[in-house]
Task: inverse folding
């Protein structure tokens, strides 16, 4: 077996299962899960219909590069959403089966396994980045996101020598789990650094369409290039998905876009890996990328939920309203694992301890004393969870840390 497999960490949900192994949740209370980041709003009916209407396409093999019509729909969406001067659908866009597989595969294609390179990533982070780096024979380097750094990676803590060893930087903006958004100017500074030190930026923007202020959508990496008058997007690749934007996690549909020379090699890799998107999913994806109405409605549902839940938690739990995404990342009055156990046992509410989403780095685990709460269920259920949390906090003595 590949010895690198042994370096993979158990997934956070496996750690959660072990944490709760000896507990029985309060039987009189219905189970409410805030731990899994799976969208639970309904899928748009017109996309479901588009899948059904094209099932006859099951009779053909899809091409890895995807249909020209899909790449064009994506290029149009990107151009409008991120104020691009243009993006070439033939060379700068590639469909993927959701961002998870693409974020993983990307490291395998981009990194030289003989180089012992550093792969930088935020801390806490989406665990795929770490696994991708490890299986590509590279070394993950964690950049802490703390309240002091506005919950964004503290890039100032990275040394010049570390940047020089970096070959791949994962960004996650809006962040999972913090909801923090990287400003355009910071993206531009990172682009300049990537070109100077010769590393690739993989910008995971899969939460970019879930934000609080309709007039202020999160900036993206390609937008940062475009604002510098650059349309070759050198060293830059973005990852987008229909899972969160359109409540279609089961469609497994996303795309990568950016630097044409990187995408050409990534396409070669993917051709061997065998990761073409089924044609009926491609056709349904075109319908989804071409419609913004359902995306605006979806945002409003999250906005209402955040307002309601934060209103209940206010004064009881130390929590900031995130700029974007669908997570809360509150500070816990007791260690995060104890807090999660108390909520599960006493309230039948499941939250994810922050330490399971982060690693020790620079002497701290920035997830400790925080939990991730995904507001993915319907509003009434999220509110009920918040009320139970307030009850439990009263028993724990509030946030007196
Ligand atoms: C930060 C982040 N990136 C990527 C993904 C993967 O999403 P998908 O593969 O559905 O596009 C997730 C899913 O939870 C995520 O939280």
Result:
């Amino acid at each position: 077996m590949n010895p690198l497999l042994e370096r993979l960490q158990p997934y956070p949900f496996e750690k959660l299962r072990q944490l709760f192994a000896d507990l029985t949740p309060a039987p009189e209370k219905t189970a409410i899960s805030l731990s899994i980041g799976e969208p639970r709003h309904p899928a748009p009916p017109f996309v479901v219909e588009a899948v059904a209407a094209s099932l006859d396409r099951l009779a053909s093999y899809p091409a890895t590069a995807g249909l020209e019509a899909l790449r064009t729909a994506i290029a149009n969406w990107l151009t409008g959403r991120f104020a691009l001067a243009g993006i070439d659908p033939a060379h700068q866009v590639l469909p993927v089966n959701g961002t998870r597989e693409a974020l993983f595969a990307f490291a395998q294609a981009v990194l030289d396994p003989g180089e012992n390179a550093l792969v930088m990533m935020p801390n806490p982070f989406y665990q795929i980045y770490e696994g991708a780096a490890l299986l590509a024979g590279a070394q993950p380097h964690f950049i802490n996101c703390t309240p002091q750094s506005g919950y964004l990676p503290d890039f100032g803590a990275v040394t010049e020598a570390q940047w020089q060893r970096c070959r791949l930087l994962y960004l996650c903006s809006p962040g999972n789990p913090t909801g923090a958004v990287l400003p355009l100017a910071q993206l531009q500074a990172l682009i300049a650094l990537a070109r100077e030190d010769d590393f690739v930026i993989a910008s995971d923007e899969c939460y970019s369409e879930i934000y609080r202020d309709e007039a202020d959508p999160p900036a993206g990496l390609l937008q940062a290039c475009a604002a510098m008058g650059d349309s070759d997007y050198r060293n830059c690749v973005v990852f987008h998905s229909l899972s969160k934007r359109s409540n279609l996690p089961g469609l497994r549909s996303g795309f990568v876009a950016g630097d044409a020379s990187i995408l050409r090699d990534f396409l070669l890799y993917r051709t061997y890996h065998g990761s073409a998107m089924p044609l009926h999913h491609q056709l349904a994806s075109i319908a989804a990328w071409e419609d913004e109405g359902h995306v605006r409605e979806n945002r409003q549902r999250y906005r209402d939920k955040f307002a309601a839940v934060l209103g209940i938690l206010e004064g009881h739990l130390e929590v900031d309203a995130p700029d974007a995404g669908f997570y809360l990342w509150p500070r816990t009055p007791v260690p995060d694992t104890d807090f999660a156990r108390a909520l599960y046992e006493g309230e039948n509410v499941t939250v994810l301890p922050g330490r399971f989403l982060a690693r020790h780095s620079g002497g701290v685990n920035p997830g400790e004393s925080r939990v991730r709460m995904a507001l993915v269920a319907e509003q009434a259920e999220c509110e009920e969870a918040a009320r139970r949390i307030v009850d439990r906090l009263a028993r724990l003595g509030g946030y007196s840390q």
